[in-house]
């Protein structure tokens, strides 16, 4: 049990190292800046396209007649925000998998395991494939839980 606790303490020390905190936070912040910037320029275009898409369905008339009539005016904005949130996470996940994970592994290896022999492996294409697989799993879970958001 003592070995497990010491490993946990070492992991927490490594996690709260300033470099690790920066590596953890910058992909999400960069993704947020990218999507907020794109939203600044394309928001009205996205709203118009989503409005045209929603008007093709009977969902807007159903919402306008029901209890949700109060939010029927804001339905398109709610849909757009619900689409942007996963896009922010997916962009951050790709940046983390491709750019940040190799830096994290190098930091932990240099700091805690300098005696380990470095072997080749873990290519960028492997990181991209791994992140694509993670995105598929994330999107599947997001789509399955989407009705629970409402």
Descriptive notes:
The longest helix has 38 residues. The chain is mainly alpha-helical. It is 82% helix and 0% strand.
The CA-CA distance between the termini, in Å, is 44 Å
Encode the helix/strand succession as letters: HHHHH
Could you say which overall geometry the principal axes of the C-alpha atoms support? Answer: elongated
Helical amount? over 70%
Main sheet record: none
Provide the β-strand percentage band: under 5%
* Rg value: 21 Å
Structural class: mainly alpha
Stretches where pLDDT is under 50 for at least 5 consecutive residues are none
Average pLDDT figure: 82
Total helices: the number is 5
Number of strands: 0
Comma- or semicolon-separated keywords:
150 residues; mainly alpha; elongated
Outline of the structure:
Helix content is 82%, strand content 0%. The chain is mainly alpha-helical and 150 residues long.
Could you outline the blueprint of secondary structure elements for this entry?
Blueprint: H1 2-15, H2 18-55, H3 59-65, H4 75-112, H5 124-149
Helix pairs in contact: 2-4, 4-5
């Amino acid at each position: 049990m003592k070995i497990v606790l010491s490993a946990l303490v070492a992991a927490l020390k490594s996690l709260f190292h300033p470099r690790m905190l920066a590596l953890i936070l910058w992909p999400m912040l960069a993704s947020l800046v990218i999507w907020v910037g794109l939203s600044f320029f394309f928001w009205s275009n996205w709203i118009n396209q989503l409005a045209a898409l929603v008007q093709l369905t009977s969902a807007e008339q159903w919402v306008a007649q029901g209890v949700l009539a109060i939010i029927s005016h804001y339905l398109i904005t709610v849909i757009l925000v619900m689409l942007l949130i996963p896009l922010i996470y997916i962009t951050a996940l790709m940046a983390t998998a491709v750019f940040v994970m190799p830096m994290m592994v190098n930091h932990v290896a240099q700091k805690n395991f300098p005696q380990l022999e470095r072997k080749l492996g873990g290519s960028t294409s492997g990181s991209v494939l791994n992140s694509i697989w993670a995105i598929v799993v994330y999107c599947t879970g997001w789509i399955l839980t989407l009705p629970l958001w409402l």
